[in-house]
Amino acid sequence: MKDVNALLLALATDKEVREDPYPIYREFRNLGSVVRANDNFGVATDYESATQVLRRPEFRKSPEREDARRSTVSSLRRQDLPPSMLFQDPPNHTRLRRSVAQFFLPTKLETLRGKLRGIALKLFEELRDANKSDLISSFALPLPVWVIGDILGVPPEDRFTLQPDVSKIAKTLDFNFNQDESVLREAEASSDRLIAYFEELIAEKISSPRDDLLSELVSNSASLDAPLSNKESCSMAMLLFAAGFETTGNLIGNATAALCGTPREYERLLSGDVTIKEAVDELVRFDSPVQLDGRVLEREIDLLGVTLPQGFFVATLLGSANRDDSVYQDPDDLVLSRTGPAAMSFGSGAHFCLGSYLAKMELGVYLELIRELRMPISIEDYHRKESLTLRGFERMIISV
Ligand code: HEM
Fold first, then answer.
1. DSSP 339
2. Closest protein CA for atom 43 of ligand 1
3. How far is ligand 1, taken at its centre, from the CA of residue 343, in Å?
């Protein structure tokens, strides 16, 4: 049995492992629920340990201690912008989250379903008419970019020019021992462009508010006990825009690969043998677009029988938790009618994904259209993204 450091090295560097990390996740789980790699770093390998790390208050996002801080935040630290809510802890995290949570409530998002279906149908018909095309650039990315742009109030003509910058920044979130210096430089330039863009857009929303999230955020801000500064609104806008499509685009690609890889289950989707909700929940579990997360300890604790010191960083293997056979029967099989606990794909605890309902709605509409239009998709060629943390496809040539 390989030791944890050999497994971590393979996870961070081995192309084949990153193409399919699920076999190595089983090796991690065989080593234990909580495995220390050294005095500062360890992994939570299964459902129970990942849940505890994401839920227990002793685990933080941005600890006081600088050395622990360095290992948590993306290597792209901006001095000119407050860290986004994703990297903050209560009480400020609670304040920031409260300022936008209402826009992502199911009742609010359900008012968008008709429009979302309209956009998806148009993109789908273009796919069908093209007969052979890249699913990622023709559907999986344009749909969530359009939708989150609409929610935020980003003018339609700007939405797709901003998308490549977000993808460059997303690369810095990867669990990778060989992070290329050029990746960081490119991400910094992209982040400059996005900050400049959203600062201007926030100023515009203040002077001429519209019926959208950013306008309400800056105008509501006044009614909040602690109003958001313009820089906080800018940081929030960047997070919501980026989180709104980079992940969902990956989910649609991963789900298509999973369905095409399991014809029996694909047939069950087409025949209506399973509900769209069941199919969505299982596809989110089976190959999640977010594979890793992490927290730092504020003080020494015992975690499932393992003592961990203050400042210790624990990486949570969400993809492994979703394949934990103590929770899911035959976890490596795609079973669209599967029942069982919610997958860890959207995290857990205070930072539970704000957009989970939206992401599931977008995947659900995609599956509905596959069923209604009886679309037998086949994958001709694909290129997987290098990133492990944000798992998905760069390109997926399909024929319909
Ligand atoms: C399939 C798609 C998605 C997946 C797998 C996903 C996954 C996650 C995960 C794992 C977290 C928790 C991060 C942590 O605890 O450190 C998170 C947080 C978040 N997600 Fe998503 N997400 C998805 C789609 C979306 C969408 C569509 C939005 C829309 C805006 C969104 C917005 C957010 C935000 C704002 C947070 C931070 C919440 C906080 O810090 O309180 N996500 N997401």
1. -
2. 353
3. 13
| 143-168 pLDDT, tens digit each | 999 999 999 999 999 999 999 999 99
The whole-chain average pLDDT of the chain stands at 92
Find the mean pLDDT for residues 47-73. 76
Nearest to 359 by CA among 302, 297, 284: 284
Look at residue 133 and tell me whether its pLDDT is greater than 50.
yes
Amino acid at 283: L
Assess whether pLDDT exceeds 70 at residue 224.
no
Atom of ligand 1 nearest to the CA of 61: 16
Q: Amino acid identity of 221?
A: S
C-alpha span between 153 and 215 (Å, rounded): 8
Question: Does 360 have pLDDT greater than 70?
Answer: yes
Q: What is the CATH number of the domain that holds 296?
A: 1.10.630.10
Calculate how far, in angstroms, residue 294's C-alpha sits from the geometric centre of ligand 1.
14
Helix segments in the chain, DSSP class H:
4-13, 15-19, 22-31, 47-55, 66-70, 92-100, 106-110, 113-130, 135, 142-152, 156-170, 181-207, 213-220, 230-260, 263-271, 276-286, 318-321, 356-372
Angle, CA 341 vertex, CA 338 and CA 345 arms, to 5°: 95
244 lines ligand 1 (CB under 6 A): yes
The CA-based angle 127-132-134, given to 5 degrees, is 70
Q: Which residues of 128-157 are buried (b: 16+ CB within 10 A; e: fewer)?
A: eeeeebbbbebbbbbbbbbbbbbbbbbeee
The size of the chain, in residues, is 400
Pair 143, 135: CB distance under 8 Å: no
Give the pairing type, strands 301-303 and 313-317: unpaired
Number of domains in the chain: 1
- The per-residue b/e assignment along 367-395, b for 16 or more CB within 10 angstroms, e otherwise, is bbbbbeeeeeeebeebebbebbbbbbbee
Beta bridge partners of 383: 395
Structural contact between residues 214 and 200, judged by C-beta atoms closer than 8 angstroms: no
d(CA 327, CA 49): 12
